[in-house]
Amino acid sequence: MSPAATARAAVRPVGVVSVAQTKSVRREDHRNEVEMLMPIVTEVFANIGVTKLDMGFVCSGSTDYLVGAPFSFVMALDAVGVWPPMRESHVEMDGAWALYEAWTLLQEGEIDTALVYSFGRSSPSQLDRILALQLDPYYMAPMWPDPVALAALQAQALIDTGKATEKDFAVVAARSRRDALGNPNAQVAKDQSPDELLRDDYVVAPLRRHALPPITDGVVAVVLAAEDRARDLCDRPAWITGIDHRIEAHALGARDLAQSPSTRAAAQGAGVFDASDAVHVDVAELHAPFAHQELILREALGLADSVAVNPSGGALAANALMVAGLLRIVEAATRIMDGSAGSAIAHATSGPCLQQNLVCALAAEPSGPTGKGA
Amino acid sequence: MTDAGTITDSGASGEAPVTTLATPMRLDYQYTAGLSQSRFLQGIAQGKFIGQRCPACHKVYVPPRGSCPTDGVATTDPVELSNIGTVTTYCVVNVPFQGQSIEIPYICAQILLDGANIAFMGLIQEMSAADVRMGMRVEAVWLPKDQWGLTMASVKYFRPNGEPDADYETFKEYL
Question: Is A133-212+238-363 CATH 3.40.47.10?
């Protein structure tokens, strides 16, 4: 057994037992963050007949830069009502990393349940400028490189390897937005052929409009539960059979942008590869805000052709910052909970050009992948 | 660089090291007040403090943010509050700072409006800072009506209203 496999054997079974999400929109004009969260927190509890008093832990993911207010996550807690006092934490990251923290705490065995949520309103702020602030503050951030320009550098690097063309980007976008027609919460859903999409103008070459994510406001919530508590709360929990995250160098020039070694390392940590170094699951929800990034992630994960990638439409259909990663886990878990999939992987990313990546493996059985509808 | 790979304290040219780098930054936002704060601000524009009551614990929050922070439920029931309240606690500002618009010393106080279950911060004027005290009764002084708008700046400040001080028991829960 490899060391990773030995570690996995000791993992406490923890599953997703309830999920809720808003419909993703371009701009939520009426409600503030707390008012958006409240109905979703209510729904995620009501789905399984619990209240906040049943939660052993609360963890959220968001960033003050989007809200433009300090400690906005503390105000967001008003949507839960933390009285009597609760064990609570927050990550200034996508909610997928909040889920990782909750999963880690559940592994310690002191608690059996956790609420995880994230809120992200991308519309109030100047997104291009905010995302520049996650770069090195001395040499890069002062030049305010926008995220589309950086993604275009990565797309060009991928084209230069000979592994992909602009047509491949359009194929990803066409499939994603067509699949989004079946997702009532998606923001961008339409049926257009790759050839039609290739008539778009470049935003930043080689990226055309269709290869870019929409700007989205949204919130999402999850309840995790361990062992028998999960079985009590849910007929068919989506068990987390492995989860890991890895990060690459901050300096873009120090990385090979056409590959994602951190995704590969995270996937190895999550134990998703079979003996032939491929991933065989029913569904993969990949957080690829730009179309070419799906191609990089597919290669890093060695996804078999049979895997349904982003049946929700993915981040090309809705991309609320700090939410879209946790939403991938929610979409993957939903397909296991409703019986349409037996196994899935969900991926979340953070930072420019896929700098940091999280991989979460989910299955209908805590012991690992089984057949469809098992 | 030395052989050990450390950077010497002056550059290769012998010039002084760079110790500071200035990067001007500015971010603009299109703020969404939300449903309950919008109602509150619309009340302010009409010269009224409008709070909201929690349907579970019946506490009244002002300014309301749409949720009861204790119960985590929506506060939908609007409540018009008094123009008069009690100073629960205060501080006297003696330190000058850039952009200060009020002459020091001045009083910054937590004010519990009659009928509310949470205090908010307000400026106290028309009295000596030496005389401020917990339990003091105060009233809002508004700008002229034609200057009311969707902003707390519509309230100029609070001032003593001459009533006897409130009994400590009536506001000790709000400290």
Answer: yes
Q: Write the pLDDT tens digit of every residue in B41-61.
A: 999 999 999 999 999 999 999
- Name the residue ranges covered by the structural domains of chain B: 32-81, 82-175
Would an 8 Å CB–CB cutoff place A41 in contact with chain B? yes
For residue B172, which amino acid is it? K
Cβ separation B72–A126 shorter than 8 A? no
For chain A, the average pLDDT equals: 94
Residue A31 neighbours by CB under 8 Å, 6+ apart: B32, B34, B35, B66
Intrachain domains A3-126+215-233 and A133-212+238-363 with the same fold? yes
Residue with tokens 């809200």: A67
Q: Looking at CA atoms only, how far is residue B54 from chain A in angstroms? A: 12
ipTM over 0.95: no
Question: Burial of A9 by CB count in 10 Å (0-12 exposed, 13-18 middle, 19+ buried)?
Answer: exposed
Q: Do B70 and A79 touch (CB under 8 A)?
A: no
| Distance of residue B143 Cα from the nearest chain A Cα, in angstroms | 28
Calculate the alpha carbon distances from A373 to A94, A337, A365, A369, B35 in Å: 30, 10, 11, 11, 43
- Tell me whether B35 touches chain A (CB under 8 Å): yes
| Domain extents in chain A | 3-126+215-233, 133-212+238-363
Using CA coordinates, name the residue in chain A closest to B74: A38
pLDDT tens by residue, A181-196: 999 999 999 999 999 9
From the list A68, A78, A133, the residue facing B29 with the nearest CB is A68
Distance CA(B89)–CA(A113), nearest Å, equals 40
User: Among A27, A32, A128, which would you mutate to test the B interface (most chain B Cβ atoms within 10 Å of its Cβ)?
Assistant: A32
Assigned architecture for domain A3-126+215-233: 3-Layer(aba) Sandwich (3.40)
Q: Which of B27, B37, B70 sits opposite A125 (nearest CB)?
A: B27
